[in-house]
Amino acid sequence: MKITIIDTAPGEEDEIIVKCSRLDEELMKMLRQFKQGGMCLNVYRDGEIHRIEPEEIYYFESVDQKVFACCEKEVYETKNKLYELEELLPARDFVRVAKAVILNLNKIDSLAPAFGGRFEALLKNGEKVIISRQYVGSLKEKLGL
Amino acid sequence: MKNIIKRLQTMLDIFTRITTAVICVTAVYIGIFWGGKDVLSVSILWQILSVSAICTLGSFLIPCGTEREVSKKSMLARMLLYFIFVNVVVLGCGALYDWFSFSSWKMVLAMEISIIAVFAVVVGAGYFAEYKTAEQMNQKLRDRG
């Protein structure tokens, strides 16, 4: 892909123009990242927009069609769907651990077996998140087991 | 296909655990009730293998791999059903193979204790395997820093 940077005239607004024959998945991903403003996510709480870095987030949870970003103490709402977040977030750090949960591996304090092939992640803020049996395989894969 | 392979692996694993535990329990049971009989028919081996195989079929009640997730309550109910199934199979086959007589309460009690012991060992071995997996994942998490 060719990248061209053109100087703007004094006072002219910075602009990104995408020239392509069609918007493929890779381009869409890049555009989403631009919209999110690099590695920061736009999240909402009490009618205010906040920008937080993914590393501050412990896990994302989808409840009643809404997606929440849970940090150490605060909970924000995000407009992204979980499948979009899976693409946006650093793949090394975030992993889907249940149908409705994406977990930050760096925030796990320890893992323990739970009933019925599931595992329980104790997070560094004391919260517990259940890792669904269906996603244990992908977690093991992510950890290199 | 992946699910079928996982299911077959799980069943083979359970069959091995059941057979091992049944052989141990049988050695004790025969020693107590048939101590004077120092020659056993080869048919006892086929009887043990057939009972273990039938008991293994009951493991279909317990979901594994990426099969549909069930609630904790449903999982407990399935475990209870599995235990009842094992009881019916072992007591039914045991009576058929003349391992014991329903007229001797001591033998029936010993059979029931044996069933509980084998069930506990098989479930315990499964939990231990999950515990080991959790430990391996914890180690990998620690290695990530």
Automatic annotation (TrEMBL), chain A:
<dbReference type="Pfam" id="PF04397">
    <property type="entry name" value="LytTR"/>
</dbReference>
<dbReference type="InterPro" id="IPR007492">
    <property type="entry name" value="LytTR_DNA-bd_dom"/>
</dbReference>
<dbReference type="InterPro" id="IPR046947">
    <property type="entry name" value="LytR-like"/>
</dbReference>
<feature type="domain" description="HTH LytTR-type">
    <location>
        <begin position="41"/>
        <end position="145"/>
    </location>
</feature>
<protein>
    <submittedName>
        <fullName>LytTR family transcriptional regulator DNA-binding domain-containing protein</fullName>
    </submittedName>
</protein>
<keyword id="KW-0238">DNA-binding</keyword>
<dbReference type="GO" id="GO:0003677">
    <property type="term" value="F:DNA binding"/>
</dbReference>
UniProtKB/TrEMBL annotation, chain B:
<feature type="transmembrane region" description="Helical">
    <location>
        <begin position="109"/>
        <end position="129"/>
    </location>
</feature>
<keyword id="KW-0812">Transmembrane</keyword>
<protein>
    <submittedName>
        <fullName>DUF3021 domain-containing protein</fullName>
    </submittedName>
</protein>
<keyword id="KW-1133">Transmembrane helix</keyword>
<dbReference type="InterPro" id="IPR021560">
    <property type="entry name" value="DUF3021"/>
</dbReference>
<dbReference type="Pfam" id="PF11457">
    <property type="entry name" value="DUF3021"/>
</dbReference>
<feature type="transmembrane region" description="Helical">
    <location>
        <begin position="76"/>
        <end position="97"/>
    </location>
</feature>
<keyword id="KW-0472">Membrane</keyword>
<feature type="transmembrane region" description="Helical">
    <location>
        <begin position="12"/>
        <end position="32"/>
    </location>
</feature>
<feature type="transmembrane region" description="Helical">
    <location>
        <begin position="44"/>
        <end position="64"/>
    </location>
</feature>
